[in-house]
Structures are given as structure tokens and as C-alpha cells.
Amino acid sequence: PPVLRLDGLRKAYGVGTPLEVEVLHGIDLTLQGGEFAALIGPSGSGKSTLLNLIGLLDTPTRGEIHVQGRPTVDLNDTERTALRGRSLGFVFQFHHLINAFSVIDNVMMPALLGGAKPDAATRERALELLDAVGLAMHAHKRPTELSGGQQQRVAIARALMIRPPILLADEPTGNLDSRAADEVFALFRRFNQSFGCAVLLVTHDPRIAARCDRVLEMLDGRLVADRAQTAQA
Ligand code: ADP
Ligand code: ADP
Questions:
Q1: Are 138 and 103 in contact (CB under 8 A)?
Q2: What is the ipTM of this complex?
Q3: Which of 34, 89, 140, 205 could join 164 via S-S bond, C-beta 3.0 to 4.6 A?
Q4: Which ranges carry the ABC transporter domain (predicted)?
Q5: Measured CA distances, 4 to 12, 26, 90 (Å)
């Protein structure tokens, strides 16, 4: 099955109040394993809402979300959290690293939350990922000792700790200068190719969207375009 399938997804906020407003009006979408897609569209078009639904951080008002062939809408919180911990990696614009912990402890966190022991094998995998993002030498620093681009690379290493088949990224390069943005983007591409994880990346940056294999465009809560393209180098 595809890694992700959305059927008739609708989302309203403020349900049951006078301010109820539907912001996603029936989204259908299939993402195959290993696909590399950009999600674009103006501010307020529903990109973050859609990403939060796909990430099982929020539930739709109508419709179904299949993750690796499994329907998710009727899962309880425990099941949803478990599935998220097995299947989904997240990278956000503001990376949510925890400064009380070292860089390597931040990277290990998703595995520990999933029940892994903080043993040598877990630590070794975290260090390999930090090495892959070029930051092994900073493993024992605190996140705030690193630059914004470096912090975002730590967040990518953290997201990959569980080997997710789906990697979701919400404006991961949004607050980076163009050089740091290019480095971060190159990492998504590299991990997409080496681990085969599907990537869905929300971006406002046309340069970034041009380098993805597929571009999904939202407008006013609807998917209005879905095009395959040859990624620019
Ligand atoms: P985008 O990520 O494309 O900027 P969002 O998903 O953030 O779009 O927002 C889509 C629409 O939903 C916007 O009109 C926004 O104001 C509205 N919205 C987002 N979150 C909430 C919320 N918690 N309550 C009410 N409306 C919301
Ligand atoms: P954005 O840059 O898209 O505005 P936010 O910082 O608002 O990103 O985070 C988007 C959503 O993801 C929020 O609802 C937040 O609670 C949730 N979130 C952020 N980090 C994590 C995480 N590591 N695990 C689970 N949910 C998270």
C-alpha cells in the first residue's frame, strides 16, 4: 500500500461554537513510499492544518488517514501516539530542541520515548545520524550553543532516529539564510535517497519547491494542483 492515503479529509475549528469554520474541504491524496513532495500555497490555505492531521497531532472532522495501509481516525490516543512514534518523523520551523539536554540526548529522545533503552546501540545510532548531518563533534553541546542551521540539522537527525517511513517537515528552512537552507534541504534529499523515507515538505520557497519531485498546491483549504516534475539540481 502507499505510505499515506488521505480520503475526503475535512477539518473544522471551533466545532459546536458560533465560530465554527471549516478550513479543509475534502482532501484526497496518496503518497507512495520514497516520494519527495513539496506542499505549497499561500498563508492560511491550510498547509499546517493538513500536516498536523497527517502527523496524527490532530484529528479530522471527516474523512480517513491511512498510514502504511492502516486507518487511523478511530485509534485511541495511546494507539495514535504509538503509531506516530513508529511511522512519522517531524521537523518544524522552530525545531523544539530541549536545551536542558545535550545534542545527542535530543537526538536519542524519540527512540527513548518509543521504549528503547539508552544503551550503547541507541547512542551509536544517534552519533551516526549526527555524523551524517555533520555535527558529531557537537554531540555533547547544548542546542543553543549551535547556529540556527546547525540546530535544524540536529532536528533532522532526531526525526530520523526512529527510521520513519514518512518524514514531515513544516517550513524547515523558513528561518534560515539561503546557504543554511540549501544545506538543510540537501539533507532531506540525501536521507530520502539513502533511507527511502517519503518526504512531505511545506515550503514558501520556490527554489526549494523546484527541487522536489512532486508539488502539491493548496488554496483556501483545497488541493488545487498536483504535479510531478523533474527536480532541478
Ligand atoms: P497555512 O499553514 O497554509 O498558513 P493554516 O493551516 O495555519 O494555514 O490555517 C488554515 C486556516 O485555519 C486559516 O484560516 C487559519 O486562520 C485557520 N486556523 C488555523 N488554526 C486554527 C485554530 N486553532 N482555530 C481556528 N482557526 C484556525
Ligand atoms: P509551525 O512552525 O508550523 O508554526 P509549531 O511550532 O506551531 O510549528 O508546531 C506545529 C504543531 O506541532 C503544534 O501543534 C505543536 O504542538 C506540534 N509539535 C511540535 N513539536 C512536536 C513534537 N516534537 N512532537 C509532537 N508534536 C509537536
A1: yes
A2: 0.72
A3: 89
A4: 4-233
A5: 21, 16, 15
Return the residue matching grid coordinates 520551523. 93
- pLDDT one-digit tens code per residue, 59-105: 999 999 999 999 999 999 999 999 999 999 999 877 689 999 999 99
| Whole-Å CA distances, 108 to 79, 117, 120, 121 | 22, 10, 11, 11
- Give the angle 10-197-227 at the CA atoms, nearest 5°: 55
Residues 6+ apart with CB under 8 A from 16: none
Alpha carbons within 13 A on the beta-carbon side of 79: 8
Pairwise CA distance, residues 111 & 128, whole Å: 14
pTM of the model: 0.86
Nearest by Cα to 199 from 21, 34, 40: 34
CB within 6 Å of ligand 2 — which residues? 48, 52, 57, 90, 92-94, 96, 170-171
The reply to whether ligand 1 has any atom less than 6 angstroms from the CB of 43 is yes
